[in-house]
Amino acid sequence: MKKFFRMNELETTYQREIIGGLTTFLSMAYILVLNPLTLSLQTVPDLPEAMRMDYGAVFTATALAAAIGSILMGLMAKYPIALAPGMGLNAFFAYTVVLTYGVPWQTALTGVLFSGIIFIILTLTGLRETIINSIPAELKYAVGAGIGLFIAFVGFQNAGIIVNDDAVLVALGNVTSGPVLLTVFGLVLTVVLMAKGVHGGIFYGMLITAVVGMFFNLVELPKQIVSSVPSMAPTFGVAIENIFQTPGEIFTIQMLVIVLTFLFVDFFDTAGTLVAVANQAGLMKDNKLPRAEKALFADSCATVAGAIFGTSTTTSYIESSAGVAAGARTGLAAVVTGILFLLSLFFFPVLSVITSNVTAPAMIIVGVLMASSLGKIDWAKFEVAVPAFLTVIAMPLSYSIATGIATGFIFYPITMILKGRSKEVHPIMYFLFIVFVLYFIFIK
Length: 444
Hints:
Helix 5 packs across helix 12 (about 255-280) and helix 7 (about 135-160) runs antiparallel to helix 19. By secondary structure, this protein is mainly alpha-helical. The protein starts with 13 loop residues before the first helix and ends with a helix. The strands form 2 sheets. The protein has a two-stranded antiparallel sheet with strand order 1-4. It has one domain (about 15-225, about 250-440). About 65% of the residues lie in helices and about 5% in strands.
């Protein structure tokens, strides 16, 4: 095993890799609660049950997708990078595709499956590099930051801190109510833990907040600690079956935009995470990422597997950097994280009682972390600032990640042409300009 993971060459030990894998798991374990809560739309009242995914099935699908993705990454690419369903992508799936567009979740899962298959093809053919290089860095940063604001906004909304107001659209909620105060407590606690550099601060913050909520009767006590694994029957294989059952809903312009959005966000989220974590671990060589294709292939395979199980897009997690900080340097750490996700399947009763007021602080903090990419945008260049700003602001205000991406990608060629920099715009960007104009005309 030492030879397979090149542990001697990377000057690491079994102890460091196991501790690193455990640290990464604790740092991203919040997804086991947030993903089922998001995809089942439990925070949205008065919805037909047909619009909601089964909470238990999504929990199992989440844990399995994370386990398979992390283990594949560890064994194939040998990087200490773990995977799980992505926060921004699950929000797009639930709140934009299902809730706003009215697309059945079964059809949305098919979209995730298609995006994973396309990702595999792009990886195997080498087209990945061309597509990545065609989109300006500023727009990539803007997309990440915009998703962060969107996730934070959803967190504030789920907690009841921000509520609907007919006069000014949104307003401050009842901050003296018990559930809202629980969220405020959780947010302060998580901020303290993160500021102190506690690995797994988000997870521990949720755990302590849930215990406090149980003490004040704001969170239901779990009936048991360990149980059998929840069935995936309500979601397993639906993504494939839906292709043959409702082809009229699959092959549409709307579905094309949905698939492109899943693909785009996962594409660059994964690339950014791989580079960031590899840099931190000292694994980059000549400013290039060794075994990058294997890492991307593992990521795309995990997305396909997750879609078949019944969850939104699986992607590489930046929380893996916590494991690297704890000493992880090889794929063994990712394998350890994957095994821990498998073990978590048996603790569904504990995790299933956690409410949106407990998870809201995690969503807000994730939003803060994602918004950090705003600092990488050159705001002094107006032709760049306009599309970047519109991308960021349109996501939370329109309650749609796709709308934010479309807005920014339409304005970028326009501002660059007006600035006399049309030759700097890649032909693919002009193609995307046309696609997103049609998106607004025929879909919005």
